[in-house]
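Section 3.1: Structural characterization of target chains.
Under the original work plan, the team committed to producing a structural model for every single-chain target entering the pipeline before any wet-lab resources were allocated. The record below documents one such target. The sequence was received from the expression subgroup and is listed exactly as submitted; it comprises 60 residues.
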Amino acid sequence: MEEKHIPYETLGRYLAGKIDNDERESVDRHLKDCAFCRQDLTDAQSWQPLKPDRPWWRFW
């Protein structure tokens, strides 16, 4: 049986708080049992979005 993981788009909405309660509960249950998705969530939480006043080319 193939193990299903939480899609990145769903994790993004989860982190942004743009997910309905039923889906949030489903994600929470999955995260409880899936170390792979917990790591994805931890990684995503550490990402820093670029600020509009600091375009990507200024980092070079």
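The two ends are 46 Å apart (CA to CA).
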